[in-house]
Amino acid sequence: MPFAHITGWGMSVPEAVLTNDDLAKIVDTNDAWIRERTGIRERRIARENQFPSTLGAEAALKALEVANVQPTDVDLIICATSSPEHIFPATACLIQDLIGADKAGAFDLSAACSGFIYALNMAAQSIRSGSIKTALVIGTETLSRFVNWKDRNTCILFGDGAGAFVLQASEQPGGVFSAVMRSDGSGGDLLSIPAGGSRHPATEAAIHAGSHYIHMDGREVFRFATRVMASSTKEALDVAGWTVDQIQHIVPHQANIRIIEAAARGLKLPMDKFVVNLERYGNTSTASIPIATVEAATSGRIKPGDKLVMVGFGGGLTWGALTAEWTGPLPSERKVKPQKGSTLRRARSFLRRILRFIDGLLSPREL
Ligand code: COA
């Protein structure tokens, strides 16, 4: 049975920074309150022409370059997102087109902020089963577009960004070892975007009521999160047959420093085992775990051979944890050219549209 190794990683965040002081000019809040209650100092906000697909594609191309893999070698793209560009087509398909992953299947995975853990596990299982060799797993968000900028309970928390991993099959032991995925739909109303789906379509009344924004019971979500972070980490470690002392890093969902500190207490681990960067990005939902991992791997903090746990929670309610041994790029004879220029890829996508149009004109109409 092949192992599923993490062989490439990349991230992309918008350039625009929104500080706590900037927020204090919009809603009744202040820097001291936000830092003390959440740990967040600033977050990134997408420009009008930045979308989950464009941020996700940038992160994916960087990850492919690290892994030394061509987009055309990718078999499967799973995009975890809480801010999909449309109900359909899937954001994963938009990314597939943007990067030119011509032979990949592509779908979105909706498990709110736990989505990246779920997606990584699904991709790893597809590789472990032998049915595919190479997968791209992406967490990407422009949640700022679902934030009610008049609601100080939520607008201080979220930010935009994307992170991506390449997973590859290898007979060498390593990569993803175990995962647990859990849910409790009875808590769905604690964190939701009520309107815009088929129950409450995007009518004038829904928009007037602000039901298309993020709604959250902060205190209940906080209580739930502090309960599940340590317990799911322990469960994933048990499944892998590892003890907590064997792991070098925990990469938690970057929602609130107090939730991470509670997890550290629950696991009896020092805070320096936890990779934390929420002060600079806020909660980027599905992107928070890959962005934190990418920064730690790029700075050399996470090294090949290190054992780590990624653990997250979110709307649904959902939560989960995953253990992995960090690998890095697999040995390869050929060197893949960096996939920088987007003009060629755009031209290819445009050509496909033209060919589909011509094919439509030439095909006999069926009655
Ligand atoms: N600035 C200033 N004051 C604020 C504020 C803000 N942005 N938001 C709330 N307050 C006020 C409240 O109105 C309340 O005032 P009151 O005592 O006069 O009623 C007081 O601060 C305490 O509010 P409370 O909601 O108890 O604060 P808290 O310590 O629970 O922190 C959260 C609020 C949202 C930061 C915290 O509950 C949290 O992080 N929850 C989890 C959210 C989360 O992670 N969501 C994403 C999951 S993926």
**Major sheet details:** 5 strands, mixed
Order of helices and strands: EEHHEHEHEHEEEEHEHEHHHEEH
CATH class: Alpha Beta
Going by CATH, the architecture would be 3-Layer(aba) Sandwich
Ions, cofactors and other bound molecules? coenzyme A
The fraction of residues in strands falls at: 15-25%
Under CATH, the topology can be stated as Peroxisomal Thiolase, Chain A, domain 1
What is the number of E strands?
A: 13
Number of helices: 11
**CATH H-tier superfamily:** Thiolase/Chalcone synthase
Mean pLDDT level: 95
The oligomerization state is single chain
Overall geometry comes to globular
Description:
- Helix 3 packs across helix 4 (91-99) and helix 7 runs parallel beside helix 8 (257-267).
- The mean pLDDT is 95.
- The strands form four sheets. A five-stranded mixed β-sheet has the order 1-7-6-4-5, sandwiched between helices.
- It is 34% helix and 21% strand.
- It has helices at residues 20-24, 31-38, 52-67, 91-99, 115-128, 204-208, 218-240, 257-267, 278-281, 288-298, 343-362, and strands at residues 3-12, 17-19, 42-44, 76-80, 105-109, 134-141, 161-170, 175-183, 191-192, 215-216, 249-252, 307-314, 318-325.
- The protein contains eleven helices and 13 strands.
- The longest helix has 23 residues, at 218-240.
- By secondary structure, the protein is of the alpha/beta class.
- The protein is globular, with a radius of gyration of 20 Å.
- Strand 12 and strand 13 form a beta hairpin.
- The protein has a single domain, classed as Thiolase/Chalcone synthase (Peroxisomal Thiolase, Chain A, domain 1, 3-Layer(aba) Sandwich).
- The structure holds coenzyme A.
- Coenzyme A binds next to helix 2 and helix 7.
- Residues 29, 33, 37-38, 113, 152-153, 156-157, 191, 216, 218-219, 221-222, 225, 255-256, 283, 314 line the site of coenzyme A.
